[in-house]
Structure formats: structure tokens, C-alpha cells
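ESCALATION

Customer reports they have been waiting on this structure for their group meeting. Please prioritize. Original submission:
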Amino acid sequence: MSSIWTRPFLVAFAANFLHGLGVLLTLHLPGLLERWGESALTVGLVVAAAGVGAVAVRPFAGRAMDGGAGRRGVMVIGGLVHALACAGYLFVDHVGPLLWMVRVAHGLGSGAALAALFTSATDLVPAARRVEGLATFGVSGLMPVALGGLIGDLVLQHAGFTELFVLMLACSSLGLLVTLALPETGARHGRDAVHTNVRAQRGFVAVALQHDLLPVWFVGLAFASALGATYAFLATFVLEEHIGSVGLFYGWYAAMAILLRLTAGWVPERVGPKRVLAPSLVAISIALAALAMARDAWSMALAGALAGLGHSFAFPIVSGMTAGRARDEERGSAMSLFSAIFDAGILFASPIFGALADATSLRTTFAVAAVVPVIGGFIFYSWDARVLATRVQNAVIPRE
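Update from on-call: job pushed to the front of the queue and completed.
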């Protein structure tokens, strides 16, 4: 059986961890905005601004990865922009044009770099173990989820947001340096690329509208939108309710997800990805419902653990379906679009949930978010069954 843990995989793993930490330390940014007296809607819009950059850059990053720049070129340029954006936070002291520009740039840089690293990981893992390999690679993104909250708590207890932003700059800069050691992994750039018979690339829109990928995009959007409520408003919830901490929730979240991925990452491929996806979405729904009812630190920890349980399987399953259904020569575009879906969920959900929180409460907001994965999953299974049945029918009916 082919090994997942190759040297290039380890390099990509380390770079993804560092860039991810540079992103996830901003989990505490809503706390700064709350200190400035901003409304929940404004907090949601500021959080979503990075999503605007991340979503906007994905079509260009995807085409560049499949074309002349390759995976490596995109991750280096994206990493440089990511580091510059992290430096920009050091000059922000209110919600104004500079903060909006920094947030968009943060999304542009990190979005491009992380999409390229994720695509490289997809290239590097054995096809027969793709879901397991992506689940394992995802640990490098889950570790920052835990550490972003915990380290942020520690820094803010003993220093301030300036020191937090300096740490973000250090992480993103190190991530950029590590990517320089990663070789190109794309089919068009490898040593045997000149001997490979590669089909002509379609446009990014054609990849986005590929029939058997549309249900995958939808369930990914539902999954991300639900979690977007916690990304945007957990810090505010902690400050308002005086229970737990951001680090506590995301520590349990990441610990559960990492444990399951390292010990049970093989389960989806053994049992069947779509059979495991349904209970994973239900776990995320229960986690958000538990957060809506949380009254103490233990209940918040339970909510985090349940969210991590669902995320541990849902994300690699949906990303594995994306890689499996995409053409090899369009994998960069497909994986870039998949990662954009996750950012788009946060982008659209944050201001919507922010308006709901202003009109009602954060507990109501989390309760509403809890319904999204269940409805999204129901629609996905119905839609995907029809799409796959049509594909089989078209394959067996002879064409004139």
C-alpha cells in the first residue's frame, strides 16, 4: 500500500499549518471589534470581507494552477500577499478603509496559498486512499483551529492585539518560506508532463457547472454556512454570556477532529463516503444546537467536540468527491472552487447571521444555523441520486 507520508507531503503539511495559523488567529478579531463597540452586523461584515477576497481569487488561482504558474507559483505569490496582509493589521485602529483593504487582502493571499497547498496534497496522496489522505492532510488545518483559539487566549491575557498580529505575521512569513521547498506537483509541470496526453482545459465556469459536481458544491456550502456562525460570532458569544472561551470550544473541536482523522481516517473509504457524510452533518447540527443552549464551560466543550466530530469526516469526504469527479487536468480549478465554496459559506452566512443576531440573539442565531446542515444534506442526497442516475442512463443508452 502506497504511503501517504512522503517528504513533499510533509512539506505541504507544514506550510499549510503555518498559513492556517496565520488565518485562524483572527478568530479573536471579533473581540477587538466588540471592544470598539461595533454591532453584530458590522462584525459579520468584517469577518466576511476576507471571504470576499478568498472567493474572488479562486477562479484565477485555479486556472493558474492548471496552466502556466502551476501549484507552486500560486502558493508562493499567495503566501507573499498573505504575509503583507498580516503586517497590515498592525496599522489598523478602527473600522475604516484600511481594515477593509487588509481583510480583503488577507482573503486573497491566504485563499490562493491554501488552495494551492490543498491541491498539491490531492496530487500527492495515492488515489486509492484519497479521502484518508486528505483527512490526514486536513490535520494541518485543524491544528491551527485549536491553537488559534488557545494561543490567542494566552497572548491576549498577557499582552494585546498588537502582539497577536505580530505572531500572525511570523506564521504567514514562515509558511511562505516553507513552500519554497515544495516541488511542483501539477500534471502539466512534472518531469513526465511532456509525455502526458492532457485533454484541453475547459473554462472555470464549465468546471463550476459540471453536473455531478453541483450537488457537491451545494452540500459544501451548507456545511460551511452553518460553521460560519461560530467563526463569526463565537468570540462575541463568549464575551456576552461569560461562559467558556474561544480556545475551549475550538480546542475540543480540533482535538476531536484530529483524533478521529488519525485513528479512523480510513472509515469513509471502507464504509462508503456518502454513508458517513449523513451522520457527520447531523453531528454538526447537534453541535450548533448544543452551543445555542450552552450555560457553562462543559456544555461549550461538548458543542466543540461534536462540531469537530462532524467536521473530521465531512470535509475530507466532500473534498474527496470533488477530486474524484473532476478531470485530472482540471483538478486545480475544481479544488480551488471547492475551497472557495467554504469561504463563500462564511462570506454569505456571516452578515445574514449578524443581522439575525441583532434582531434576536446569538442563541437564536446558533439554533437557526443548526438547521442548515440537515436541510442541506437532505437536498444533497436527493439531488445527487438524480444526477448519478442520469449519468448512468446516458452511459448505457447508445447515441446515434
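Sent to customer with the following note: The CA atoms of residues 122 and 367 lie 35 Å apart.
Escalation resolved.
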